[in-house]
Design a protein that fits this description.
It is a single chain. This protein is an alpha/beta fold and 451 residues long. The protein folds into three domains: 56 residues, no CATH class; 227 residues, tm_1862 like domain (pyruvate-formate lyase- activating enzyme, Alpha-Beta Horseshoe), CATH 3.80.30.20; 87 residues, Orthogonal Bundle (Arc Repressor Mutant, subunit A). It has 18 helices and 21 strands. The protein has a five-stranded parallel β-sheet. A four-stranded mixed β-sheet has the order 17-16-15-21. Strands 12-14-13 form a three-stranded antiparallel β-sheet. The radius of gyration is 26 Å and the shape is globular. It binds iron/sulfur cluster. Iron/sulfur cluster binds next to α4.
Length: 451
């Protein structure tokens, strides 16, 4: 019997068609059908909906449209067999020491329900967001930690249930537990949320940064702007949370100008954690690019190029089993710009792997602020600011502020509005503030460790 992500929807049905040794395929969620299937086999009764099976030489399949909504009956995952077998194979395996425990708290995506990211094929028919009650998550983690003698967890969810930030991670933080978590989040987190996650044990996050180009993020329908991505990376770095991310390129609507802007912005961000790589987007099954290619100017030209090497039978329809596809768009981006972006990112990574770690931070006294900037190689500099620029750096530190907010703040401190505006523009020019659509954020990290 087969199921799971690679057997979802028509992929599972095609595998079932061409491999006669498979008895059953569940091409969707299985919780609701497994027990009825076992009972029907035991009592020789009709096979329930949601299970592809064979009858009189043909294939029978009726869809099960019910989503698994109620997790409260789900037991915590049982890894006993895995660890027992591992111990038999290799009693000294490093995997046995403080093992990483995989745990699912939620299914679907609350962002994708409203705006499906155009490249994302993670949720086929299961986009509806469903999460476990907090008491259950807490009890399961407690049980799994004790049973497998582990402090390390990897949440396998597409996106974090936002109420867990306070309810689960806040609770972990208040109890000073030493558990560690990997989790996928949307990047529009606030400083306070990142602080709570960090203190609650989130030591690695994957925030779906994807790009620092406004147009490319809009093209993806990602629901975040470069400014929010920067804020997320800044505070994750401050609180010691590792950020896993990539720059995605190859979107159908992207332009040369998007590349130029992103390259310029990246040069201001060298003190923040670099991406793993710059990579072309995959055209994934179930994504809007797959389901509505004509809407985006995408032409799907075939299954991913690896498939024929894996399945060489003429009988198998690779289009039906493929999860990723080859495609073309009308776009012609200047290859020199792609190369420049890739090389800029490679240098960014190299700096972070060297002894010459780039930095941009500020220290604050009563009447002045000093900014230490070593983003450009071999040219570290130190600038002391007094008056308006000093308090603008501090005022825009935690979250982006509008020019109006900055001016109002200036008035409160007895400074002139026009002067404040000039100072903002000057700080932006120096790459100490980043401005986007009338909002400004201090790019420098605070040196003070108590925020
Ligand atoms: S990329 Fe992430 S946020 Fe976007 S729809 Fe997919 S799971 Fe949701």
């Amino acid at each position: 019997m087969f199921g799971g992500a690679n057997f979802e929807s028509e992929m599972g049905l095609e595998y079932f068609r061409v491999f006669p040794w498979i008895d059953f395929v569940v091409p969707g969620e299985a919780e609701g059908v497994l027990i009825p299937l076992m009972k029907s086999l035991e009592k020789n009764e009709p096979i329930p909906n949601g299970v592809a099976h064979r009858s009189d030489g043909g294939i029978v399949f009726a869809e099960n449209h019910e989503l698994h909504e109620d997790f409260s009956d789900n037991a915590p995952p049982d890894y006993d067999d895995f660890f027992e077998q591992l111990r038999q194979i290799d009693p000294d395996s490093s995997l046995l020491e403080n093992p990483v425990i995989l745990y699912e708290t939620a299914r679907g995506c609350w962002w994708g329900e409203k705006h499906h990211c155009t490249f994302c094929g993670l949720n086929a028919t299961t986009m509806k967001f469903r999460s476990k009650p907090m008491e259950q998550v807490h009890a399961d983690i407690s049980y799994l930690s004790q049973r497998y003698n582990s402090f390390r967890f990897r949440l396998v969810d597409n996106i974090l249930e936002m109420k867990y930030i306070e309810g689960i991670f806040g609770e972990m933080a208040r109890n000073n537990f030493d558990l560690q978590f990997f989790l996928e989040v949307k990047s529009n987190l606030t400083k306070q949320q990142i602080k709570l996650l960090a203190h609650g044990g989130a030591n690695v996050i994957q925030p779906g940064i994807e790009s620092f180009s406004m147009n490319q993020l809009l093209e993806m329908d990602k629901g975040v702007r470069p400014l929010q991505n920067i804020l997320c990376m800044k505070w994750a770095m401050y609180y010691g949370v590792e950020v896993n991310w990539n720059i995605l390129i190859g979107f159908p609507g992207e332009t040369d100008e998007d590349y130029r802007q992103q390259i310029q912005l990246v040069k201001l961000l060298l003190h923040l954690p670099p991406p793993e790589c710059v990579g072309d987007l995959w055209l994934e099954r179930f994504s809007p690019y797959y389901t509505r290619p004509e809407e985006y100017g995408v032409t799907i030209t075939g299954p991913g190029e690896a498939y024929p090497y894996v399945y060489d039978s003429e009988d198998i329809d690779l289009f039906r089993i493929a999860y990723d596809f080859e495609f073309t768009t009308q776009n012609e981006i200047d290859p020199a710009l792609k190369k420049e972006l890739t090389e800029t990112v490679q240098k960014w990574k190299a700096r972070h792997q060297s002894d010459d770690l780039p930095y941009l931070f500020f220290t604050k006294s009563m009447n002045f602020v000093t900014v230490y900037d070593d983003r450009s190689i071999g040219n570290p500099n130190k600038n002391r600011f007094e008056g308006a620029p000093a308090w603008i750096i501090v005022f825009c530190n935690e979250s982006p502020k509008t020019m109006d907010q900055i001016k109002k703040h200036a008035q409160g401190l007895g400074a002139e509005e026009a002067a404040a505006e000039q100072e903002v523009l000057q700080l932006e020019k120096m790459g100490i503030l980043y401005g986007e659509k009338g909002k400004y954020l201090t790019l420098a990290l605070p040196h003070n460790a108590n925020l």
